[in-house]
Amino acid sequence: MLLDIRDRLLILSVLPNEGNILTIRILRDLKNALSFTEEEIKEHGIKEAAEGFTTWDAPYSKDIAIGEKATDIIKDALKAKSNSGKLSIEMIDLYERFVETK
Asked: Would the pTM of this model clear 0.90, i.e. be above it?
């Protein structure tokens, strides 16, 4: 799935930190795939800015393989945010892409 920097950061921010052993193993792999390499950080000027914001120099997308179970974890995390009234406007594109797709 083609994800830009913002998508990757948002997905990382909604993923759970707990679960059963199978879920945690999938989460570990997913977080590693979504994280940024040193090369990406340098090449695209990705930086932590004030107040926890992240900045980057220019648009950049990467094709990241996301399996069926990992997709379900992302869907469930986004649904939980929505159900608790904590889905932010920044997350709506991801919500539509992961939850409302057929």
From this structure: yes
> For residue 89, which amino acid is it?
I
Q: List, for residues 24-46, the tens digit of each pLDDT value.
A: 999 999 999 999 999 999 999 99
Neighbour tally for 45: CB within 10 Å: 12
How far, in Å, CA of 5 to CA of 37, rounded? Answer: 12
Q: How far apart are CA 100 and CA 98, in angstroms?
A: 6
